Amino acid sequence: MVLFLKNREYLGVPKSHFTAKVGPIGLDMGEDTLKVVQLQDNDKGIILVAGGIEKRPDDIKPGSVKWQMWAIEAIKRLTSNNKLRGRDVVAAIPASEVLIEHIKTPKMKDDKDNKLQSAIISKIKQKLPIELDNAMIKYIPTEDDNIMAIVTSREKINRYLAIYEKAQLAIKSICVWPIALTNTYTKFFGRRKTDIDAVVMLVDIERNCTNVVICRHKNLLFAHSLALGVSHAELAETDETITRLTFELSTCKRQFCSMYTNANIERLVFLSGQAVDKSLYTAIAKQLAMPAQMGDCLAAVEIPVNHEGLAIERRGCQFSWATAFGLSVS
To answer: What share of the chain is helix, strand, coil (3-state, %, to 5)?
Structure first.
């Protein structure tokens, strides 16, 4: 699925970026952390080739010039790992930099792409937080005549491209986080025959946000990012945190059900794995009255016996790797 930036034109993860069965280097560039990972499929399973993470210093403000300088140096350090194979990089910008709107397919006499694009822009332009001339807008047709419109600004894309260029990366594409999370689910947790038609809600709880995707296997249906996260230091979750998260997830569920009247969400999949205490997952699933599973992508890959240079701890992991893993798998 190709969306925005390929060779500085489209965002997505085309299969041509994969050499043999080694995936590209996945770079998850968040406001608070930078994560790099590379995976390999050896037919028997997925192997972690290399990976690392750097946390933003507390005295550096996200988005500032100082932050950009830190990001460049951090990326250089993370990608200097001699275990990395090839130089192809698939990157993702923070969820806060992307606007997602869900609309019904506009009725038109002519369904040519350019006219559909114009009709979509007409429907969402009043909601855009940026000038239309500065907006990059792409769309994904889903089911029941629904469309997922994904918007970011050219200015932000150019800012990240400048960072990548100064970090000496061979950026092949920029992927949006809903596609990355769907990739992680289908590769690691949606592999049974019964999963092909199952509609699931993917929940990735990070430190400063919670990203939600509803999909039917590899088909995206719904995505929304909540400005509410849980840090590892807050593992003694309060009732207020659970109540707020549950309320927001319930809102996502209601919106989805209003859009897809014949689709029922079968279960929750918490892709943040061990980054959040299981008690939070249990409480949310109980309040939503839904079956749930913990999708720990670190536990789903093989880590080589000689894993020197892998700055990823499987036990006691404090960060979600779901987006980074999704960037490195087809």
So the answer is: 35, 30, 40
Q: Which two tokens stand for residue 46?
A: 């997925």
Q: How far apart are CA 188 and CA 210, in angstroms?
A: 20
Domain count of the chain? Answer: 1
Centroid of chain to Cα 48: 19
Contact present, 106 and 119 (Cβ < 8 Å): yes
Place of tokens 């109980």: 286
Question: Do residues 327 and 89 make contact, with C-beta atoms less than 8 angstroms apart?
Answer: no
**How far is the C-alpha of 310 from the C-alpha of 318, rounded, in Å?**
15
DSSP secondary structure, 37-94, as one string: EEEEE-SS-EEEEEEEEEEPPTTS-TTSHHHHHHHHHHHHHHHT-TT--SSEEEEE--
Closest alpha carbon to 210 in 268, 288, 149, 271? 271
Q: How far apart are CA 156 and CA 153, in angstroms?
A: 5
12: pLDDT strictly greater than 80: no
Torsion of CA 40, 94, 278, 254, to 10 degrees: -110
264 found inside a domain: no
The answer to whether residue 34 sits within a structural domain is: no
Band of residue 318 on the pLDDT scale cut at 50, 70, 90: confident
Specify if 130 maps to a domain.
yes
Establish if 43 belongs to a structural domain.
no
Range of the domain at 126: 96-152
- The whole-model pTM stands at 0.89
| 41 bridge partner residues | 46
Q: Please return the burial class of 235, using the count of CB atoms within 10 Å of its CB with bins 0-12, 13-18 and 19+.
A: middle
Q: Over the stretch 197-255, which tens digit does the pLDDT of each residue have?
A: 999 999 999 988 999 999 999 999 999 999 888 764 454 456 778 888 999 999 999 99
Please answer whether residues 195 and 121 qualify as being in contact, where contact means their C-beta atoms are separated by less than 8 angstroms. Answer: no
Q: Which of 304, 327, 309 is nearest to 80 (CA)?
A: 309
238/226 Cα distance (integer angstroms) = 18
